[in-house]
Amino acid sequence: MFSKRLKNLNPYVPGEQPQNRKYIKLNTNENPYPPSPEIINCLKKLNIEDLRLYPDPQSDNLRQKIADRHNIDKSMVFAGNGSDEILSFSFYAFFDSAFGNLLFPQFTYSFYSVYCSFYEIEYLQIPLNYDFSVDLSGFLEEEHSCGVIFPNPNAPTGILLSIEELTDFFDKYHSDKVVIIDEAYIDFGGISAIELIESYKNLLITRTFSKSMALAGLRLGYAIGNKKLIDALFAVKDSFNSYPSDILAQKIGAIAISDERYYKEITEKIISSRKYLVDELVELGWTVVPSKANFIFVAKKGVAGKDIYLKLKDNGILVRHFDIDGIKDYVRITIGKKDELDILLNKISKYF
């Protein structure tokens, strides 16, 4: 009844969204602030007649707004139904085990291994450095691979690779295989690698509207890269679903990407709250991994990560725990508003 492919799948497990009670949700890296207020005007002016028509399959207006924001040509932009879908298209388009293993970090976004299972791609996970930073030299040591993918900042650690480190990597990466940098969290303290696109034609960058633009419920993302890479993504899209981004998503996305002032303001608030939480936890004796994301990765000596997660959940606070050897003593905490973080710190002081 079921295909062999289905039997071999090991699906991604998202952060829990329990409905049994009201929690302070610090487990799925959602933005604690609302999206651009300009979006409200868009919804008020929506012509319901538009919904009987198919959306623009190329998302041309949205792509142009993204291109304008990053000072690039529209031909270098692909838009889709969340960065996860774009990553899925990318795995299909660029990675093939006939050329070797796909390389990604040992501890990273767990959807990468799920996509490999889905598309039957062999992969090799490169161990992190002792401080949890991504070991770019480890990718260079594997001569036969079908490509590389890693987030920057990495997840769940939050550690950022600098533009200088990335440039040095690409200068030594003597291959035409595609390298994907997943920049879901780059706006929370990093510098985008978009400036490297012109120099390295095999670089593809994926980004999302879910995190810094506070639109996780919209499902919208984009990719930036050389035109040949973008054309390949369009070929995959049009072989799977010609209309992945709906009319509302395209309109709202165009507004969000253009409201740079508002999003800079709320991002700076999150960065400030992150520093506050880090300083307080360090003062309380916690180990905190340096983060440039909208979350932190923390541990308390002598306390199991699962126990931290369960005790906080019992007290109405959700954080994320990964029951994986090597990181099971840590929990990931999303940066919420200051009042939420104060409640978190109160519970942590009381129980740990």
H/E element sequence:
HEHHEHEHEHEHEEEHHHEEHEEEH
Largest sheet: 7 strands, mixed
State Rg: 20 Å
How many distinct domains? Answer: 2
Percent helix, as a range, is 25-40%
CATH topology of the largest domain: Aspartate Aminotransferase, domain 2
Give me the secondary-structure category. Answer: alpha/beta
Instruction: State the CATH class of the largest domain.
Output: Alpha Beta
The helix count comes to 12
Based on the structure given, which CATH architecture of the largest domain is correct?
Answer: 3-Layer(aba) Sandwich
Q: β content, as a range?
A: 15-25%
Ends: how far apart?
A: 51 Å
Features:
352 residues; alpha/beta; Aspartate Aminotransferase, domain 1; Aspartate Aminotransferase, domain 2; 7-stranded mixed β-sheet; 4-stranded antiparallel β-sheet; 13 strands; globular
